[in-house]
Amino acid sequence: MAIDQSGTTGTPDADEDEPEDIVMSVRDARVSFDMARGQAWVLNDVDLDVRRNEILAVVGESGSGKSMFASALLDAVEDPGRLAGDVTYYPDEAAGESQTIGSFDEGLDDSVDVLDLDPDELQAFRWEKVSMVFQGAMNSFNPTMKIKAHFHETIQAHNAVLEERMDHVRKLFDALYIDFDRVMTSYPHELSGGIKQRTLIALALVLEPEVLVMDEPTAALDLLMQRSIISMLRNLRDEFDLTIVFITHDLPLVGGLADRIAVMYAFEFVEVGATRDLMKNAAHPYTRSLLRSVPSITSDVDEMEPIEGARPDPVNIPTGCSFHPRCPVADDRCEIEDPDLAAVEDDLQAACFYTDQAREQIDYTLEDESTGDDR
Ligand SMILES: Nc1ncnc2c1ncn2[C@@H]1O[C@H](COP(=O)(O)OP(=O)(O)OP(=O)(O)O)[C@@H](O)[C@H]1O
Ligand code: NI
């Protein structure tokens, strides 16, 4: 079937009788900045659902709006950016009130309108329900405080029971292969990048949020550490019943991690789908071009083709389909009409009028480990 009447995207539902279990939904989300050159749109009318317990990767080039989307999920867009639209969180009804650990008690049996929360509620919501590891946050540890003090501070700020929370942290540290006694008594500078990043992930999970948003959590790490964190995240999701939103510019990296992938171009989603479908046979020309430009161990340097053309300017987003100036299959229609996300397959949606042509004309090959096939 196609997309539902409310314009819901990201949730093509093959079985009408069994609606997807949604933990967060984003509708018409827009972020604007007033700039000397004019108004900049850095999130441009975005719709997406996050399914409970999934690992959803949000992928796009630098400057495409990924961090804006991540921040929107927690109403954390910084001034002078203005966020509008709807962001809704749906608590897990099965877990009920027993799920409450800290101080957030706003409408727990009901949906939560995130953009309506007052500052205190938002502060509680951000750690207890939807938690975020911000981009570059590895350097946000206070250098004068031992790691343990960071945990105590967060637990106390949420009026949670210290001993009980620290027991939980032990479990988190085990799952992340962190030595509890050594790391708790260390100062941040005494830890390696990989340990620091994993410690941050544990800190984000101390109040048992349902959703963990991670913005480029592996960008500063070497390839080996990136991969080891990726493999820990799947276990973490299973053991702690998490939903993970993983933001990255590295599409092949998330092939082995994510259940679904949402591809961002020019401040909106252009393709959303199940990892296997999207990696194996992407429908949007941008996704296909991105996959084509990926260097692989077996591919010749000659075969790599970076996407030509300039990245879109948020003050001057192209008319029609914003990818048309760089798109090999675009025609006159694409200059005028802006395609909506529409179902291409059961669990694959693309915002493009010419997905057949894109599949015919833009070739790429990927190694199996990038398609999610090896797990
Ligand atoms: N304070 C600001 N004022 C104006 N524009 C901004 C501001 N902060 C960010 N932007 C713009 O918003 C756009 C989206 O930024 P965002 O940080 O979401 O990109 P990103 O996809 O996360 O990129 P990266 O991979 O580099 O982190 C960019 O074009 C950026 O220049
Ligand atoms: Ni970013």
Automatic annotation (TrEMBL):
Gene3D superfamilies, per the entry: P-loop containing nucleotide triphosphate hydrolases (3.40.50.300)
Pfam families: ABC_tran (PF00005), oligo_HPY (PF08352)
Catalytic function, reaction form: Ni(2+)(out) + ATP + H2O = Ni(2+)(in) + ADP + phosphate + H(+)
GO annotation (BP), single: peptide transport
Signal peptide annotation: none
InterPro entries: AAA+_ATPase (IPR003593), ABC_Ni/Peptide_Import (IPR050388), ABC_transporter-like_ATP-bd (IPR003439), Oligopep_ABC_C (IPR013563), P-loop_NTPase (IPR027417)
Species annotation: Halomicrobium zhouii
A GO CC term attached to the entry: plasma membrane
Protein name: Nickel import system ATP-binding protein NikD
GO molecular function, one term: ABC-type nickel transporter activity
Subcellular location: Cell membrane
Keywords: ATP-binding, Cell membrane, Ion transport, Membrane, Nucleotide-binding, Translocase, Transport
Coiled coil: none
Domain (ABC transporter) ranges: 26-291
Membrane topology category: Peripheral membrane protein
